[in-house]
């Protein structure tokens, strides 16, 4: 079975490290960035799923999501948006996110959502 690739885009290095370790332990191939703009530069190694923080320095995750969903090469990549702000789930989904997770989240809940989308 091909190893699934997950990209994490979050400007909190602590969250990136924790989630990266968990997902690698679960057998996923993980790439990460703390700069939202680099998500839009993906060309060759497209992930099977993107974990995208909404509030990132310089870029709003919702804008990144809208751009990804408007391009044929990336429009089918499932996006789970994460945010410490629980009341913006609707705007995340409106931006094209496939799911939403409020921080702090349970790792089991994250894994369940990833399983459903990949």
TrEMBL record:
Residues 5-118 form the Response regulatory domain. The modification 4-aspartylphosphate is found at residue 53. SMART domains: REC (SM00448). Keywords: Phosphoprotein. It comes from the Bacteria. Transmembrane segments: none annotated. PANTHER family: RESPONSE REGULATORY DOMAIN-CONTAINING PROTEIN, STRESS RESPONSE REGULATOR PROTEIN 1. This is Response regulator transcription factor.
